Amino acid sequence: MRDWLAREPIIITSGKGALLRDVNGKEYLDANSSIWTNLHGHGDPRIDAAIQRQLKKIAHSSALGLANEPASLLAEKLIAAANSDDAECGTRNAKLANASSIPRASRLTPHLTKVFFSDDGSTAMEVALKLAYEFARRQGQKRPRFLSLEGAYHGDTIGAVSLGHIDRFHKAYAGLLFKTDAVKAPYCYRCPFNRAKPQRADAREYRKCKWECVDAIEQKFAQQKRKRGPYSAMVIEPLIQGAAGMIPQPAGWLRRVAEIVRDHRAQLIADEVLTGFGRTGLGPPLSSETPHASPSLFACHHENVQPDFLALAKGMTAGYLPMAATLVTQAVFDAFLGEYSEFKTFFHGHSFTANQLGSAAALASLELLHTRSSLRARVQLEQSLRDQLQTLWPLGNVGDVRQVGLIAGVELVKNWKTRESFDLREQAGLRVCEAMARRGVLTRPIGNVIVVMPPYCTTAGQIEKIVSVLRQSIGDVLAESQDAR
């Protein structure tokens, strides 16, 4: 904060598409979608128009004991999107069951039926946690317990922080938190079980292991069951952990872990605040004859996993307004039904729950996501990003380049051959991002990892500039001394 106060910040005044403009008229490419929220670009005329139409009716009214039209329609659309893979489950499950590298198909694919609206990702997770806790108690568990991944970040409210395991963010509040357990995340680049030597490729592609990280989760569930009773739920960011450092999961990991959760009769909470609404790409094709027949908006569906709780925010309104949702099963909803005198209701609420303007923006965004032009643009953007990221491998200070759909993380190291990290006090990632800003590209680091996550409207030429600026900035700032060849 002292560093921030020492200089004038960049003051943004306007934006259009993938471009932002500051108070001095300088333009910047928005390389992290304004902290991972903006989907279609700034000032999209179709979302602008949807908000303006709603504004002529009403901006907000209470959802406490009342309902409104756009939020009701949005809930219907979210439920449809969250269950969109149901018809294809049989086909995909059969394929997965026949694959020797992936465990048998899930015996249970929950159907999400209800939506609880809130304000942001932290509260969406807080809602999921509180619902899961009380649901477990009403199912007979005296002391519900939760499992999440090392390096987990699920928000900044007290419950969400309790699920997190990043000391820099969470340790200061330890006295306020309840205990949750952590298990090793599948960080292939720095996994102690990965016996492969560093190569110039995504570590997931050349890893050598025996899925020890998955075995550790199985052991954790079994140990918990013997000592204290079963876990109530496991919390996961599917396909990629965001604030942990853009740590992607190898193909098949999510599905294997979901099987373990189901086998132990626990519930699965999917934090798709970052990964939802197409961020992780269109997903694998159903078959060669029907590629992307039903493009997945949610990361879970890429491995045919359906959670019991689905937390959404960030891109839900395409980055226009704060809004979030927690989707749950009918069984969870029914656990809170009773006579008035029983007080079984879910005691939780927000002043701006189901806000009409946010709902209007989200409805317009969902419509855009299903257009052919958007699908085509996202396919092209993912490929452009993949092609350009390959140009970073010659840099000796680039240790790992990892991409999941339209999300990329570039891990900076002192020497790629040894994977030696920069001390966080050296501010390697921050200094590279500052150099990028001077060249007209805005993003933020996660420690030593540079995030590249552009809006879906970003052109191939703009992607080329983003990565070119990143490449130049790494070279200038870190003064690499290694020959990467």
Furnish the topology, listing elements before pairings.
Blueprint: H1 2-5, E1 12-16, E2 19-22, E3 27-30, H2 33-36, H3 45-55, H4 69-82, H5 89-98, E4 112-118, H6 121-138, E5 146-149, H7 158-162, H8 167-170, E6 181-183, H9 203-206, H10 212-227, E7 233-236, E8 240-241, E9 247-248, H11 253-263, E10 267-271, E11 309-312, E12 324-329, H12 330-334, H13 356-369, H14 372-389, E13 398-404, E14 407-415, E15 420-421, H15 428-438, E16 441-442, E17 445-446, E18 449-452, H16 460-478
Parallel strand pairs: 3-16, 5-6, 5-7, 7-10, 10-11
Antiparallel strand pairs: 1-2, 2-3, 4-12, 8-9, 11-12, 13-14, 14-15, 14-18, 17-18
Quick structural overview:
By secondary structure, the protein is of the alpha/beta class. The chain is 35% helix and 16% strand.
Characterise this structure:
This protein is α/β, with parallel strands linked by helices. The protein has two domains: 135 residues, Aspartate Aminotransferase, domain 1 (Alpha-Beta Complex); 302 residues, Aspartate Aminotransferase, domain 2. The chain is 35% helix and 16% strand. It is built from 16 helices and 18 strands. It has a seven-stranded mixed sheet with strand order 4-12-11-10-7-5-6, sandwiched between helices. Strands 13, 14, 15, 17 and 18 form a five-stranded antiparallel sheet that branches.
CATH homologous superfamily designation of the largest domain: Type I PLP-dependent aspartate aminotransferase-like (Major domain)
Helix % is: 25-40%
The chain-level structural class is: alpha/beta
Question: What is the average per-residue confidence, as pLDDT, rounded to a whole number?
Answer: 91
